Each structure stands twice: as C-alpha cells, then as structure tokens.
Amino acid sequence: MTDIQTENLLELKDLCMSFYTDEGKLPALSNVTLHIKKGQILGVVGESGCGKSMTALSIMRLIPSPPGKIDSGQILFNGTDLTQLSKKGMQKIRGKEIAMIFQEPMSSLNPVVPAGKQIMEAITAHEHTGRKEAEARALEMIGKVGIPMPDKIFHSCPHQLSGGMRQRIMIAMALVCKPSLLICDEPTTALDVTIQAQILKLILDLRDELGTSVLLITHDMGVISEVAEMVVVMYAGQVVEYTSAKDLFTRPMHPYTTGLMESIPKLNEDVEELHVIPGSVPMLNALPEGCLFAPRCPFTKDMCRKWKPAIYGTENHQVRCFKYSTEWEKQS
Amino acid sequence: MTETTAQPLLQIQHLKKYFSVKTDSFSAAKGYVKAVDDISFDVQTGETIGIVGESGCGKSTMAKTIIRLLEPTSGRILLDGEDFSALKGDRLKRARRKIKLIFQDPYASLDSRMTVKDIIGEYLDIAKEYTNKKQRDERIAEVMEEVGLDLDFMERYPHEFSGGQRQRIGIARAIVLPPKLIICDEPVSALDVSIQAKIINLLKALQKKMNISYIFISHDLGVVRHISSRVAVMYLGHIVELSDRDKIYGKPLHPYTQALFSAIPKIEAGATARKQVLSGDVPNPANPPRGCCFHTRCPYVMDICKTDFPELQQPEDGHWCACHLYKKQG
User: Fold this and answer.
1) What digits encode the pLDDT tens for the residues A44-90?
2) Which residue in chain B is spatially nearest to A275 when comparing CA positions?
3) Is B248 within 8 Å of chain A by CB?
4) Would the ipTM clear 0.85, i.e. be above it?
5) CB A197 to CB B273 under 8 A?
6) How many angstroms separate the CA atoms of A91 and A302, rounded?
7) Which residues have CB under 8 Å from B165's CB, separation 6+?
8) Rounded to an integer, what distance in angstroms lies between the CA atom of residue A178 and that of residue A127?
C-alpha cells in the first residue's frame, strides 16, 4: 500500500491464497493488501465467503494444506515474512506474538479441562515458567478480563460457564502471553447484545492497557463503527475499500460498500423498502473477468467488464474501483 | 391490551409455559423454568408486532406455544375469537391453517430428502386442498413465483440452495395455504445483510398483498423497527415493555429496554463502545430473582424491586411498561 513504515506491525502484500480442488483452482484471496499499525484496531468487514476468515487463517498459517496454498505475496510481521517461516518458527509466533480468538468459544475450548489450566497451558507452551508462577499469572489474567471470583472460575470447566464467560476465558488465554497482535474472528457473533457490549468494551480496554494491535473480523457494520479505527471492506476475496471507520460511514466510495450500507435497516430513519444489491456474490470457480463486482454494480462501464481495477484514491482512503481513476470520465 | 372496536385476529391472555425441572425421570418436579410467564397481548389483522429480547428470554418458546407445538401450561389463545388453545383433532388441524411459522435456520427446517415441490406441496396434501395433481402443481408454481424462486428449482433438493433461497422456500411453504398470521422466529438472523434486505422486502410485500399479520421475533432492533408497527420487549419470560414502534424507539421507559438499545452497536460516524454497559448475565430462568426479574442488573434498583413483582401498567397512553419507577402515585 505504502512504503514500509517502521510502525507497521503487520503488513500483507498482494497475498494470494487458493484452494486446489477437483473443480480446479479456487482463488479464496486475491491480492489482499493491508496493514495494521501498533496499537491500532483494524476492522475487516464483508459478507460470508468474502475471505475475512481466510485472511486471518493465512496470517496464522492455519490454512488446511492441502487443499489450501498461499500462492504468492508476503505477510510481514515486524519485518519477518511469515510465509517463509518453518513450522517450528511459526509455532513460536503463534500464540506468543499473534493470538487469535474465535467465534464459538465452546468449540475452541477443551470442555473437560478447567479454564485456569487451559490458560496456564498457553503460558507454559511459550515460556519457561514454573507451575506456581503460571498459576498466578493465569489467575491475574482471569481477573483482568472482568470475571468475578477468579478463584472459582479457575477450577470450573468451560461447560459450566456462560457464553460471555467462555469468550472472556478465550480472551484471557489469548492475551496472557502479551501478544502484539490479537486476531478476533467474529468474537461477539454468538453472544447477546448486552454481553457483546461487555466484550467489545473489554477488548478496547485491554488494547489501551497492553497496547495490543487488534484485527477485528466481523460482518456487523455496527460493531465496526463502534470499535474499529481503520476498516477494510472485502468482497469475493479482494480488498475493495480501505479507510478510517469515520470515513466509511460518512462517505463510502466503493459501490459495494454503499450498497451494503443502504441495505441495513437503520434505527433512525424510515424507508418503505430496503435497498437491495441485485444478483448474488459470485462463486469462486466462476469469477467474472473484469471487476468482481461489475455484474452487480449500477455504474458498470465496458472497462469494468474487461479489466481488473487497481487501487485508487488517497493513502487513507483507498478503493478498488475504476470510478475513481482518471480514465473514468473518458470512457463510455 | 389495546382497546379497539374491531376484534383482534389473535388474543393472547395470560399465557404461561412452564417446564418442570427434574433430577431424574421418576422423582417429582424440583422446580419450574418459567419460560413464558403470564404474557398477554393482541395482534390485529395486517399488523406486525415485533418481539425483542436476548436469548433465553422465552421468545421462541412463546412462538411454539402460540402455535401449540408446545402445550401451554395455562392461559388462553383466541384466534378469530375462537379458543385455539382448547381445540382438538380436526378442528385444531383446520384452525392451524391460519397460523404458520417461519424458522431461523433455513438449513435445519427443510427436509433434505424432499424436493422443493414436495416441501411446499406438503401442506396442500395434508389439507387435501387439491385432488387434481395438475391443480396442485399449478398452485405450487404460483407460490414459487410469488416469493421469487425460479420454477426450474421445483425438482431440486434443499442442499442445492443458498441460505436466502432456502428461506424463500420456507416462506413459500408458509403462504401456500394463505394464512392469517405468520410467526417469524428470527427469519433473517442467519443471513448476510444484502440477502436479509431481500427477505425483509419480500415479507413486507407479501403482507401488503395478502393482509397477513406477523409476529416478528428478532434480536436485531434495526430489523424489528423497520418491519413492525408495535414492539414488545421480553426479559426472562415476561413482557417488560409494549408500545407503538415510534414510542418505544423514541423514548424507551423500562431500564432494560434502555440498556438494550444502548448496547446495540450503532452505525453512525463517531459512535463509540464506551457507554453505559449492563453488567452481569441474564439470571438462570430456573431460579429467577424475587420481585422484579431485572433488579439484579438494573441501575435504578430500589428496595421495592427486590420484593414486589411489577405489573404491566400504562405510564403513558398506549405505552405499557412493567417497572416500579413508573408506579402511579396513590
């Protein structure tokens, strides 16, 4: 996107990832470029199948392979290219430097191991600490994520806890080694709104306290607008817009983003009929030749069907759409 | 609850659904989970009443009890003035034609071994509506067109469809015998926003055309506001607030409604998550707190809240709220 800046914690450069299946090559991510600065919260938003989770899994190098494979591009984390790391090298970073929390805490926690012990595991896997010290740190972390009576919860198994509590345990486990990057894949989707508000506040507070950068993946525009500072909008495996959260909601540029915004029922305005984006998301094995959004876009010109748009706009508001190129006016 | 001259389509009076809690199947019940506890409201013909609340507050149990997939513990359900809750056998079957249910998960609510045609036609077969196969198929085709399904899909199976299309099949099934009331239980929660918009538009268009009433259950306050004319807020089996959409969204009275509205992430520039966040979890419904069920999390809790259960009352005209804060003086 821009030249390497020292403060960029994570930088994805033209990352391409595909699944090789019997039906041929399915490009799950094409030329994904994004960066997160230290202490920043970057939101990634898009509909199901747009490649949000695949981006996260690629960064963690957790793509099941085969069939998945990173074809090209770089994932620079503190200057190291994660795509070049060995399995062992990656294990040192995973959980220690980059931690991840998932949508469904119950399926990512071991149901029969006490919560505290699972947090201790995260410590002992990465650091040479004694049992006593690990226990103390786990206990401290449980308190930090806002769980009442940490001593009691320490010895409870996940199935005895509520959804919100489980997600707090996941966050405690992710943050106990003080990672510099936290990836949250739909952290609140399975939770109720009042609990969601608690968890989002917790993530914000911990970011302030520990200075962790956060990559927040969600489909909920509301969550993005309240938590994220910068936002990436994805469509069919591509980044189509990158801007600040404020700009995204006041002046979205990409026709997909605008369409998406208009199709959400608002709390403060009345419309008789909701806006609808015509057509549906293209299948990965039948992507259109030109711009991926061209078949559904109200502004499509000939050039959109023929060529793939590059990234246009300013450094702080980038958009993958010919509308913002200098060529646009000249075309019919 | 609201006084109108016309007879409401559906009247729910003091509806209760308790589930007994047993340690094993031979012992007597140790207690009850009061999933739906003394709920009353009316639904007028052609209106949409939205039901909001968090998971476990009894929204879905209420839906199932109204349609009698679960037998109510007590209370009455009047459909077109007829006591639906007391019907049996053939008369129940006939009355059930008037109420349909649309489910949240379009993946789980369609039989994966039946073709789309048979899924939609099943109601017609059960009702013995058409003896002539051609007429039956024509009616199915008509309904499929109405909900925007391609007629080529008739012989296909549910797994071949996307979530939005499956939800359309569910809707087609619900309207094939024109109902008077459809209970929509989180019909768009599993869908992406752009598909959600299509389904909501479809539901609204069908309502206009066929004059159907909806009970629209959702946890998405934006969607509920868009589709409903009145809204009820549920908490632990009780309705805590019930009013016209604009009144409840403009000025929520109950502390729980206020907290719920403030917890919803707002789509506006400069919104922030740093706001009053409700602490704690929803209490265990098997062991609800005494007095007002919200008092454990309420920021305005008073002594009376811990002992006395607040009844629904009207602090403002047509705006019902169950909270001691609004108790009429004297």
Assistant:
1) 998 888 888 899 999 999 888 888 889 999 999 988 899 998 989 99
2) B197
3) no
4) no
5) yes
6) 48
7) B149, B153
8) 12
